[in-house]
Amino acid sequence: MKIFSYTYNYAHKTMTFLTNELKCVDTEHELLFAYSNRLNPELYQLKAMVQIPYKFNRVNTKIRWLLEKYEISFPLRNFTFKKKLNKTISDFKPDIIHCHFGTDFLKVMGNLNEEHRHIPFLVSFYGFDVTERIKNKAVLKKYIQFFNKPNIHSIAVSESLIKNINDHIKPYNKAILLHSGIDVDFFRRKESPKNSGEFIFLQVSYFNQKKGYYYTLKAFRKFIDENNDCNYKFKIVGFGPLENSIKDQIKELALENHVTMLPPVSPQEMVELSSNVDCFVQMSITADNGDQEGLPNVLLEAMSLELPILSTVHAGIPEIVAHRVNGILCAEKNIEEYVKGFKEISKWKKCPHNREKIINLFSFQAHMKHLNEIYKSIQEKKT
Fold this sequence. Notes:
- This protein is α/β, with parallel strands linked by helices.
- The protein is built from 14 helices and 13 strands.
- The strands form two sheets. A seven-stranded parallel β-sheet has the order 3-2-1-4-5-6-7, sandwiched between helices. The protein has a six-stranded parallel β-sheet with strand order 10-9-8-11-12-13, with helices on both faces.
């Protein structure tokens, strides 16, 4: 099957859920992958790749920003992008166009020639694109306009996102659930000696508001103050716009002896690191702009590595973590519940049943099998 795939940014180091899928599609189908902005060019190479720039001059950028900010319209037209996009599609003649992220689908549809609008589309939603973005009336209007067609299909990684799509966008074809998947053979715990006098918490993520660091650190400080039965440590791993803010908060809360910040890690380093800690933490929250998680892949990885999870009742997280079975779930931003959660989870041991759950429900093999079934179904509808 010939798949033309597009996403604006390729590829952030936090987007292994996308890069792993594309790598597999590249093996099983004839893939032409298009992107507008290349990140980490030394990584994630595919067989056939093409850059299709999507840029505006300073004046146009300002006008577009104002129109979007005041929800007047969501301009998408870009002559350079349109010309190269349509020529690339004409030359390749894809069976399916697969857009990753709903907002990137809008870029493509907003610049597609009429002759290509009959091609079956599959759109993958991951989180912000159908949480924060649909709060803007101009963006939502575009979604509704383009999804009201029989050849446009969509998938999302969690039930919460599926509900948003079907309730707000009201697509011609109901959105389909396709959970993320991970390589369970790769994310296997390595036995290693550990200091019995320590209990180590770990969080690995992008440093933005929805990861909930502000409330997590406040709760951890209170937990430390109330519990001195063990040497509790917290390793925070990643990068992002709130990095300095997190460092400042650690100092303000006098947590320097308990909290360590580390740079981003590779998947192999994630395995090594997780094999030497006791619990994985991700207290996700709804950001001020409405941004939410989809289905955090890092939780799948941590569970495959047999770690208990301390997290929140947020977006797709309860679809992964059953309360008091796979970990502890707290209400968002509820510091008292967070403190109780830290205390309760600190009594837990390794969780082999967490790994079994991921093997049974969230393996990458199962994800790709379902994706290929979706591709086949879409192609059959066309014929």
